[in-house]
């Protein structure tokens, strides 16, 4: 992988600074004159940036913080979708899920299938062709159970050689994904459990006992995730491969809460991203905006593998890397709940376009409505106990456009879309989104075919009903929501 470069310019573009000249050897970064590096993706579910290195003070996360101290922390990292399956579909291809038709959550699961556009290859397939052992599993995976994929398209399962790198040939480099439960593993069990009384909530959530306890359990899950990271590092060191391994630590989207998961506010799309490995200057903080599909390109480059021209992710360490002036994230159907939202996020502003403004923010969604925090919020709203900021998410209709000044309003509570003093900003971001939709061939411009929706819903409902017991009533709720979605569509909502 030859390239002509000026070392100083290259390092400056990468955010390392001139001081990094003593620490970074470009040959080491790209694998020249040494054995190929290992690549590990630690992928955590349902978790935002609540780690010490990102400013969280209520808990301690020494192991994730140490990774950041030994490597590069990206301060403004985002996902292309605030829910797992479209996000993971994008990550494993390095492509926007909207460009490859994988944008609806848990789609292509029934008789109607989704196939990737021609010439799109999965990241593990590219690693395999370069001689890497590829695996996807869980921490301490004694049963060798395959790790979560959740891709919304058909693919050859053989792109993964196994579930753990211990099965590779001697000295063979590996590309591994380790899946951690993260926020889905909420618990009160942790060495130093968080006291709900000490929880500090965002201003848009009320200090209700149910919500405080849920947030405390979430922070406990963050601490447990930190412990799991320590276990991974310990194993790598014990095997003598830590110093030749790039570790990527990330989450698949933000915390699963009312304004988080499934929404395009910061709580849903901003995620932690840390990369530690040979040649990367310790303690580097990148403040440019990056998006999680960039990890695909960056990982391939670190292994000396050619990045496909069609890949939309960017190598964050490339000699000719150009910082993003904005990122775009998208939310589409989640389970039975039909929606379409897009956002453009610049360093200062967030522009959101709601394509279904006649619908409430909190449309019926059996997955979210089953959560105790949503039940508590709905109860408090009905009782009139929520203030303006806490009631925003309960609006029966949405504005077609939202605009937030993130410097003045980091919690995204004051919509400036109708403020004439911000008209120029609104128009500029509106134009950016229109151009992005055209240039990336946003497949959501055409509604999801009824046959695909019905096919996916049958699998979804049958799977829930087959659990038996209380899940039978849950399946009936999903069916009721499906009927409502079809009714609203017929009404033009």
Describe this structure in words.
The chain is of the alpha/beta class. It has 2 domains: 7-322, Alkaline Phosphatase, subunit A (3-Layer(aba) Sandwich); 449-493. It is 31% helix and 14% strand. It has helices spanning 7-13, 26-29, 62-70, 84-93, 123-129, 209-238, 266-269, 294-302, 366-369, 372-382, 388-391, 423-439, 450-465, 471-490; strands spanning 38-44, 72-78, 133-138, 174-180, 245-251, 270-276, 284-291, 327-331, 341-345, 349-354, 401-405. The strands form 2 sheets. The chain has a 7-stranded mixed beta sheet with strand order 3-4-1-5-6-2-7, with helices on both faces. It has a 4-stranded antiparallel beta sheet with strand order 8-9-10-11, with helices on one face. Strand 9 and strand 10 form a beta hairpin. Helix 13 packs antiparallel against helix 14 (471-490). Residues 1-8 and 15-28 have low confidence and may be disordered.
How would you describe this structure in keywords?
alpha/beta; Alkaline Phosphatase, subunit A; 7-stranded mixed β-sheet; 4-stranded antiparallel β-sheet; 14 helices; disordered N terminus
What proportion strand?
5-15%
Q: Count of helical segments?
A: 14
Task: Report the top-level CATH class of the largest domain.
Answer: Alpha Beta
**CATH fold field value of the largest domain:** Alkaline Phosphatase, subunit A
**Count of individual domains:** 2
Report mean pLDDT, rounded to a whole number: 93
Share in helix: 25-40%
Instruction: Report the principal-axis shape.
Output: globular
DSSP E strands, number? 11
| CATH superfamily grouping of the largest domain | Alkaline Phosphatase, subunit A
- Label the CATH architecture of the largest domain: 3-Layer(aba) Sandwich
- Alpha carbon gyration radius: 22 Å
Low-confidence segments, given as residue ranges, are 1-8, 15-28
Strand order of the largest sheet: 3-4-1-5-6-2-7
The rounded distance between the terminal residues' Cα atoms is: 52 Å
Secondary-structure element pattern, one letter each: HHEHEHHEEHEHEEHEEEHHHEHHH
- Judged by helices, strands and strand pairing, the structural class is alpha/beta
